[in-house]
Each structure stands twice: as C-alpha cells, then as structure tokens.
Amino acid sequence: MAEKVVGIMGGMGPEATIDLYAKIVKATCAKSDEDHLRIIIDNNPKMPSRLDAILHGGPSPAPAMVETARNLEKAGADFIVIAANTAHWFYPDVQAGVNIPVLHMIKEAVNWTIDNLPGLSRVGLLATTGTARTKMYHDHFGEVGIEVLIPDADDQNRLLEQLFAYKYGEDVAQVRGRVVPIAEKLVQSGAGALVMGCTEVPLILEGYHSPVPLIDPNQIMAEAVVRYAKSF
C-alpha cells in the first residue's frame, strides 16, 4: 500500500499553517527529498471567522471548510488535518462532508498527554476565547480524568488581545511578555502542564522556559501526520 497523501486545511491563520507544515517536515525521518511526504495545502483565509461564529452567532465557516476539505480530497489527499484549534468546533461538519479521514488535533493532544505525562491531573489551557467557550479541551481531557483550567475572564480577554496582536504583526517579544504572566497564573492555580491550544501560542512562547511541560498540539499533530501517512 502506498504512502498516504496529506491534505492540510490552512489559512486559519496562515502563519499557523506554515508552523504545522514546518513541523511535519522536521518530524519526517528523511535522507533525501523523496523521503518526505506529499502534502497538499489549501491556505484559505477567506473563511468566515470561527470566533465570530462561536461567540456572536456570526456566519458559520462550516460550508467553506467543507468546500476546502472537498478541494483537498479532489486534489488527491488521502486524509486531512485542520491547521487550527478553534476550527475543530466544526470538525463534525468537515468529516461528514468528505469520504476520507480527518484527523482530530484535540484528540491527538489528549492521547499524547496520557502517553507522555502519566499521573497528570490538571492542565492549563492557553487558547482563544472561542476554544475555551466551546469546552472542547475540557470535554476530551475530562474523558480521561484530567481537569482543564482556563484564565479568569480578564486574563482570557487579555490573552485573546495578544493573540490578535501577534497575528497582526506586533513584536513577538512584547506579546510574549504579556502572555507569560497569564500562563504562570495557571501554573500557580495548580496546572501541571500548559496546553498551547491556539496554533499561534507555540510561536509566541518560543524560547520561554516554562516551569511545567508545554503541550504543543501542532507538534503532536505533525508527528501523528507522519505516523498516519507512513502506516502501510
């Protein structure tokens, strides 16, 4: 059976898509170009806002996400990954709209945590307000007995502001300096690890020496992509 072709649903946002792609490349054990995976990326930043849909009842991005997934399927992808955490709220629509598997970033992150951080009882979640509001991480971690802690309302608003500040080009060191105290409050509240549950957070916190393990769903998904694509 041939190696599987990867489809990446990107654009939510574009830099997070680059990060996932780069991590897939680095996670691939390759001695030549030919050893790398064939990857098809549809970087579609024109989809309606996931945050606006979740928080304010705005237009659903699901139809555009399904269309993008179908484009990847038609282009030859054997399976799809969604390069965004918040967008996984619409995962059921995407999976129902195609005939190929769609990997689930949050489930992969939970499985990795169970395997690599045994005995963990609480994690802190650094994510968009949309991801926090949907409780996707709460639900999936709750199934394995792990409690999810989130910032208080004021800190969550500050975190969202900083995620957008980074997206729109503010100096990353300044953004990091505002995000780190929010992360450390979660640790002080009892979080034994921090989930970087927005795909921009690992980019913001790069170089930060956390007192607890940092869980990077983008890295975890990249490793899962390589395993799935090369499983014959």
CATH architectural designation of the largest domain: 3-Layer(aba) Sandwich
Whole-number average pLDDT?
96
Query: How would you write the strand order of the largest sheet?
Result: 5-4-6-7
CATH top level class name of the largest domain: Alpha Beta
Strand content: 5-15%
Number of domains: 2
Q: What profile does the largest beta sheet have?
A: 4 strands, parallel
Rg, Å, rounded:
17 Å
Q: How large is the count of helical segments?
A: 11
Return the CATH topology of the largest domain. Rossmann fold
Backbone shape: globular
Low-confidence stretches: none
E-strand count: 7
| SSE sequence, one letter per element | EHEHHEHHEHHEHHEHEH
* Spatial gap, N to C terminus: 6 Å
Structural class: alpha/beta
Helix content: 40-55%
List the topology elements:
Blueprint: E1 6-10, H1 14-27, E2 39-43, H2 50-56, H3 62-75, E3 79-82, H4 91-97, H5 105-116, E4 122-126, H6 129-134, H7 136-142, E5 147-149, H8 153-167, H9 172-188, E6 194-196, H10 201-204, E7 214-215, H11 217-230
Parallel strand pairs: 1-2, 1-3, 4-5, 4-6, 6-7
Helix pairs in contact: 1-11, 3-4, 5-11, 8-9
